[in-house]
Amino acid sequence: MIPFQVNSLTSRETELQRKVHEITQKMTGMKEEFNGEKNRLTEELNLMSEEMKHNEGQLKEFMLENSDLKKSLDCIHSHQMEKQEKMREEIAEYQRQLEEAEKRHQTLLLDANKQHEREIQTYREKLTSTEECLSSQKVEIDLLKSSKEQLSNSLKENTELLGELIKTKVCFLLIVL
């Protein structure tokens, strides 16, 4: 009785190991697909990150330009004390332009950041959609395999039945003749 149980448990263990191996292979395939999609999305995110860095570089250039303009204003003010009233008007105009430029640059930066966040969300949604699509396609493949097996079994049964009918017809013709 115990050797039978051991043999039964051993065969069950072998079957479980085979199933675990099959599942591991399927998981490896799915993991490779996921990693490919993840790498593609990571690359897109890296491109967006580089674009953001570029935008930050432009912002720094604008800030340097802003700083240069302020230095120019200070230099003009110190060298032309006799034209103080005129310089005050120019300084006010420069400051207004700088504030507008800063506002425009801030608006552009905020818009770019919002756009990137929307794009990231879109890519995340696409990734989720792709994963759902893959899952549904896997279910569909399993259904098609099952249908194929049923059709194959039905074809075998019909072929056997046809063979028997032909044999019966031949026997009947032989009897009639």
- Structural class, please? mainly alpha
| Shape by Cα distribution | elongated
For the termini, the CA-CA separation is: 63 Å
Average pLDDT, all residues: 87
| Poorly predicted tracts of residues | none
Count of discrete alpha- or pi-helical segments spanning 4 or more residues: 2
Summarize the biggest pleated sheet.
none
- The fraction of residues assigned to DSSP E strands is under 5%
Order of helices and strands: HH
What Rg is obtained from the alpha carbons, in whole angstroms?
39 Å
Number of strands: 0
**Percent range of helical residues:** over 70%
What would you note in describing this structure?
- The structure is a single chain.
- By secondary structure, the protein is mainly alpha-helical.
- 97% of the residues lie in helices and 0% in strands.
- The chain is built from 2 helices and no strands.
- The chain has helices at residues 2-79, 84-176.
- Helix 1 packs antiparallel against helix 2 (84-176).
- The radius of gyration is 39 Å and the shape is elongated.
- It starts with a helix and ends with a helix.
Short description:
This protein is mostly helical and 177 residues long. The protein has helices at residues 2-79, 84-176.
Q: Main attributes?
A:
mainly alpha; 177 residues
